[in-house]
Amino acid sequence: MSYPPQPSMPNGQYGQPAPLPQHFGTAQAPLAPQAPPPYFQISPGPPPKQSRKALLAVLGTVFGLLGLSAGAVVYHISTRPGPTNLSTAGGTPWQKLADGMTAALSARDEEAFLKPFKGNEVREKQRKVFRNLVKIPWAAAHWETQFAAPLNGDMMVTFVHQVKGVDSKPVPEVYNWRVEPGGTAPVITAVSGSKDLMGKTSDTSYYPAPWDFYNDLAVENRGNLVVVADSGQAAEVKRDADVLAQAAKDDLAAWNKAAPPAPAGRESAPGFFVVLEKRRDVYNKLYAGEGRTNDSLEAGVNMPIPAYDSKDTKQLESGGSRIVMDTTQSRFASADWKEGVSEIGRHEMGHALVEPFGTEQVLVQGLQDTQMWVVEGFAEYMAYRGKSDLARADLKASLQGYRFDGTLPESLDFYSNQGQARAAHYALGASALQYMGQKYGEDKVFAFVAAHYADPKQYQRQITDATGLTLQQFQTDWAAYVRTAAGTP
């Protein structure tokens, strides 16, 4: 989800960015009527579907016979990487090549890693990729070819990886290798993200990752937090890492103290992976194929990635999340930047924390059963947790000039293109959970959020389980709380 714009503060403090996101200020100074940029979270695609090796052999034969007409089929399948190796038990020359790269990364052997690449340009690019990869703390990292043989010179390959202390399960990044048979072994002449039916980089390839895009990666590892950026922002990574590490500690400690037990295999996220980026075009490009449409109201975004080895083809199963933050926003640039970075950090990490509970596959944003006020309200709840004066100031500022009708925000227009409306929706969602926590206890808030992510169709029952009230009764009581807190009619 994204972080919204932030209401501006007096004395040049926080301004308000925009598309699903946030805002800051001091408890003593009320916020001005502007709203901060929102945060935003992207719903991952459906989990990868399993394929049988027997089917693989048949597919290989069929693709060989169909020639060009099969190309579209291969590209389509490649956008949903399978959880099993489709290359006949790793015995093909292509999988052996992939295994060699895996071994080279494990051994930190740069020349062995570069051996299969042909041509100065691709070799130098992959040299930089290798030098970036060795900076990341991996719990697992290997390459799997998705087919027994290339089609028309293209081979689909998945980089299956798990960041240590961050990902609960291995996740995929899907590449397209342009390959040639070579003399004694195949060679790779070009590397890109996997392609969709139109021949463009698929937005479900989760390409490019920072290690693909940046020539030199700056990395700060705090155990359950990894912060990265281009080396040109290395000083900012060092400056912000400790603040973000405290934000991670705050979110994890709060959740672990009061949250209900999680079902096996659906535990909350153990940690967080954050990318800091000052160039908006790059911000929109990371993990998003050809790139996301720019949302001027967005200050940060959390992007869940499905588990690679998911056995569930009906429900979403997240293996981890990637958070990208725009460091040109006021949260990073104001005199009170520590408060700003902490707030956006706690917000986006709040999204990532509970993402593994989510099961709904969203086809059309706004028409899903999952309530967006719960999703963004929880992230804002975590951002302002323990800061009731700031939360109240944010609510009051965000509702100035907004027509509050006493109802919880609807999902369909939650991410309004109007900054004022979006900021109000974020603040109202947060206030609903703040009210629930004050009256019924934080354990009720966490149990409600976890249950809603897991089974959003039971929304009204979940409200009753948390409060003992019907949805209508809860909404009426909460609306009275908002009017008192914000001084709104």
Structural notes for this entry:
With about 500 residues, the protein is of the alpha/beta class. It has two domains: about 1-40 and about 215-489, Orthogonal Bundle (Neutral Protease, domain 2), CATH 1.10.390; about 55-205, Roll (Nuclear Transport Factor 2, Chain: A). Helix content is about 40%, strand content about 15%. It has 16 helices and eleven strands. It has helices at about 55-65, 70-80, 95-105, 110-115, 120-135, 210-215, 235-260, 280-285, 330-335, 335-355, 370-385, 390-400, 420-440, 440-455, 460-465, 470-485, and strands at about 1-5, 40, 140-145, 155-165, 170-180, 185-195, 215-220, 225-230, 270-275, 300-305, 320-325. Strands 1-2-10-11-9-8-7 form a seven-stranded mixed beta sheet. A four-stranded antiparallel beta sheet has the order 3-4-5-6. Strand 3 (about 140-145) and strand 4 form a beta hairpin. Helix 10 packs across helix 11 and helix 11 (about 370-385) crosses helix 13. It is elongated, with a radius of gyration of 23 Å. The two termini are about 30 Å apart. Residues about 5-35 and about 45-90 have low confidence and may be disordered.
CATH topology of the largest domain: Neutral Protease, domain 2
Question: What sort of overall outline do the alpha carbons produce when their principal axes are compared?
Answer: elongated
**Residue-averaged pLDDT:** 84
CATH class of the largest domain: Mainly Alpha
DSSP E strands, number? 11
What's the alpha carbon Rg, rounded to whole Å? 23 Å
Number of domains: 2
Q: Report the CATH superfamily of the largest domain.
A: Neutral Protease Domain 2
